[in-house]
């Protein structure tokens, strides 16, 4: 049973004609974009923006209309994946390196629906290394400042090369083990110059749809 696909396809049921939709990034969002593409080919009329170059490419291949940001005044809904979700619906995101665009799009959405397989549901955030997007300038100093917050930092690589985000930045993966106060850590990280944003999404998710092994979905959320 493909738990990511089940959660994604459930979320896409909520998309209606005329909606402005944000498209997430990653292997779960992939299934949502596929399903949305199918519905567009069957006549659904939506306008969309994407959170990564990869998701935009996929959407265009499937015939989903991608609209310039300047032409849209916010979004009705965004469907995106997550690396960890806790019971307060705070998230760690950015495993795919798209956290900055994902956070911008989520912030401007009336509703953020998170889709995930059951392995992403955790009592406390932090087992998954927290992705932090940093600018390349003085990267060594920025990494030192992150380490002073009590984590082990790994600059993300792709093969032999440093991983470069869609925004031409780096990702520092920060292993904290556990994050008891996500909001405090979020603010502490953002106080370091050179950091663009981090993968803690606090109070942004409205609904979380978890796909289970037995084919069922579980829906948690505020709206
Ligand atoms: O935040 C993300 C990309 O930046 C993804 O949503 C997150 O990494 C989950 O990925 P997947 O759906 O492949 O498990």
From TrEMBL:
In terms of InterPro entries, this protein maps to:
NagB/RpiA_transferase-like, Ribose5P_isomerase_typA_subgr, Ribose5P_isomerase_type_A
Provide the active-site residues from the annotation.
Answer: 102 (proton acceptor)
Instruction: Name the chemical reaction catalysed here.
Output: aldehydo-D-ribose 5-phosphate = D-ribulose 5-phosphate
TM ranges are none
The entry's cellular-component GO terms read: cytosol
Query: CDD domains given for it?
Result: RPI_A
Q: What is its EC number?
A: 5.3.1.6
Ribonucleoprotein keyword on record: no
Q: Where does substrate bind?
A: 25-28, 80-83, 93-96, 120
One Gene Ontology term of the biological-process aspect is: D-ribose metabolic process
Give a yes or no for keyword Isomerase in this entry.
Answer: yes
| Annotated Pfam families | Rib_5-P_isom_A (PF06026)
Q: Name one GO molecular function term.
A: ribose-5-phosphate isomerase activity
Key words of the record: Isomerase
Which pathway does it take part in? Answer: Carbohydrate degradation; pentose phosphate pathway; D-ribose 5-phosphate from D-ribulose 5-phosphate (non-oxidative stage): step 1/1
Source organism superkingdom:
Bacteria
**How does the record describe its quaternary structure?**
Homodimer.
Query: PANTHER family in the record, alphabetically?
Result: RIBOSE-5-PHOSPHATE ISOMERASE (PTHR11934)
Role: Catalyzes the reversible conversion of ribose-5-phosphate to ribulose 5-phosphate.
Q: What is stated as this protein's family in its record?
A: Belongs to the ribose 5-phosphate isomerase family.
What is this protein called in UniProt?
Ribose-5-phosphate isomerase A
Q: To which species is this protein native?
A: Paenibacillus crassostreae
């Amino acid at each position: 049973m493909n738990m990511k696909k089940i959660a994604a396809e459930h979320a896409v049921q909520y998309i209606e004609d005329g909606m402005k939709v944000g498209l997430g990034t990653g292997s779960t969002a992939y299934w949502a974009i596929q399903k949305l593409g199918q519905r567009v080919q069957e006549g659904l009329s939506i306008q969309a923006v994407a959170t990564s170059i990869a998701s935009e490419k996929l959407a265009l291949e499937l015939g989903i209309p991608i609209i310039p940001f300047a032409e849209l005044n916010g979004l009705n809904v965004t469907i995106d994946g997550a690396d960890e979700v806790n019971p307060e619906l705070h998230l760690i995101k950015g495993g795919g390196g798209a956290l900055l665009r994902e956070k911008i799009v989520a912030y401007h959405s009336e509703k953020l629906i998170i889709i995930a397989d059951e392995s992403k549901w955790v009592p406390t955030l932090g087992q998954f290394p927290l992705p932090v997007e940093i600018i390349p300038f003085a990267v060594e100093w920025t990494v030192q400042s992150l380490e002073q917050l009590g984590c082990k930092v790994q600059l993300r690589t792709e093969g032999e090369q440093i991983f470069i985000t869609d925004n031409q930045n780096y990702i520092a993966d920060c292993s904290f083990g556990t994050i008891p106060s996500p909001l405090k850590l979020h603010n502490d990280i953002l106080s370091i110059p050179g950091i663009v944003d981090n993968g803690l999404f606090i109070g942004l998710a409205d609904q979380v749809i978890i796909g289970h092994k037995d084919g069922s979905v579980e829906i948690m959320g505020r709206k």
